[in-house]
Amino acid sequence: MKKLVVAWVVTALAATGAAVAVLGLLGNGLTGTDSHVLSREDVREALATATTRAAVTAGATPSQTAQQGKLIRSAGGTVIASCDGDLVTLRSWSPAQGYSVDEVGRGPAREAKVEFEPEEGEELELKITCVGGAPVSRVGG
After folding, report:
1. CB within 8 A of 84, min separation 6: which ones?
2. C-alpha to C-alpha distance for 99 and 124, rounded to whole angstroms
3. What angle is formed at CA 10 by the lines to CA 9 and CA 15, rounded to 5 degrees?
4. Helix, strand or coil for residue 75?
5. What is the mean pLDDT of the segment spanning 100-122?
6. Is-contact 88 102, C-beta < 8 A?
7. Is residue 49 one of the residues assigned to a domain?
8. How far apart are CA 7 and CA 13, in angstroms?
9. pLDDT for 70-100, tens place per residue?
């Protein structure tokens, strides 16, 4: 009986040791957290890099901003539109609750439009054009 207990303890220790070794090789240790701690210099360098990236993104050229699109809200729903010169393109559209999309003219064109149709009542037609390189909307009839 004593031999069985000793064999069981040796097996348990071997299995535990193997598990700890495998977890160590995976790099997460026994607790699942990374043991790498950043120094103050590492933190400063990471923050400087992040600040530089944010400044570059904030200083984007107007054509890059135009390609991303402008969010336009209306009672019938929202539209994201962008301009390339005087041509407008609808990137996406989403009806508001209680509305559905009836018709879309996505462009590129001098005028794009989305018709939002309510469950009851008159439809809302959103017309979008480019003025000064930026999307401008108006509700049409």
Report:
1. 66, 67, 108
2. 9
3. 100
4. coil
5. 93
6. no
7. yes
8. 10
9. 999 999 999 999 999 999 999 999 999 999 9
